[in-house]
Amino acid sequence: MDTKRSAYSHLFSADSNLESRPTSQNSMDFNPNIETAEMTAATPSSYTGSSSSAVSWIAWHCSLPGNEYLVEIPECKKFVTVAWIEDEFNLTGLSSMVPLYSLAIDMILDLEDEDNSDNSTEESESGKASKLRMVESSAQTLYSLLHQRFIITKAGLHCYKERLEEVEFGVCPRIGCGGCPVLPCGMSDLPGVSGMKLYCPRCQDIYKPRNMKFHTVDGCNFGTTFCHLLYLNYPELVPSINQESFADPSQAISKYSVYTPRIFGFKVSLVSPTGPSMQWLRWKEGIIEDDKVEDD
């Protein structure tokens, strides 16, 4: 591919207001007004930008509110460079899923739009702005699909392993999980189907982020494979039911537990209409019940 700087690059100037860029991704509605669970959200990482006067499209995109959980693909230089995006093998099948694919990939890679240069005098300003918005929307969708593929590579898994160890994505809202760190996940591999969720490896359930800005993040940025593949490659990241610490001793978490409903000190029967008939779903072998300790 041609590596010339893009005609779009002036839009990403470090001196410009990043919030003024079109945010077509935020137009997706994943019912942000419905909150199903409370989640401790991580503090967004500070964005340092590029050392040059221009900010790359990828850096700008990952700095948008709600995109703090994404990684900048070329920034994972320990294993890979920006050439990963230019590898045709990694782009297989995406051209049929994303409209204006060629323009979108050029925008992501900060390449020059030759058609735009040739027709700059013929198109009206409103036409250029309309086209730019469409290309921007396609670029965001394409990056979501590329991100989903990249994070299941060795480089991507390593990046998120380090972030998970820092509890960057918050902890599980379920009391019985004892503050177990969670990981971003998706419920679909296709764009525009579902928003991003947070997965807990202890209770093996998903939760909606508490912070509203994450409600419009497309779940296809992470897909359905990422979480489980990461824990398969790094099983030490899954705390056991009796483990009281996670990675760093300063990040202590409690033992796993299952809530037992009681009335005047007596456990509610499993056959009662209001009893814990589905308690077995949370049960794990090796749990020490508080009532068994008291009876002894």
From TrEMBL:
Q: State a GO cellular component annotated for this protein.
A: cytoplasm
Q: Which Gene3D superfamilies match?
A: 2.20.25.20, protein kinase ck2 holoenzyme, chain C, domain 1 (1.10.1820.10)
One annotated GO biological process: regulation of transcription by RNA polymerase III
Per UniProt, what is one GO molecular function of this protein?
protein kinase regulator activity
Which regions span the lipid bilayer?
none
Pfam name, any one? CK_II_beta
- What does the UniProt function comment say about this protein? Regulatory subunit of casein kinase II/CK2. As part of the kinase complex regulates the basal catalytic activity of the alpha subunit a constitutively active serine/threonine-protein kinase that phosphorylates a large number of substrates containing acidic residues C-terminal to the phosphorylated serine or threonine.
Q: Which family does it belong to?
A: Belongs to the casein kinase 2 subunit beta family.
Oligomeric form and interacting partners: Tetramer of two alpha and two beta subunits.
Name of the protein this chain belongs to:
Casein kinase II subunit beta
Q: Which organism is it from?
A: Boothiomyces macroporosus
- Kindly list the organism's lineage: Eukaryota, Fungi, Fungi incertae sedis, Chytridiomycota, Chytridiomycota incertae sedis
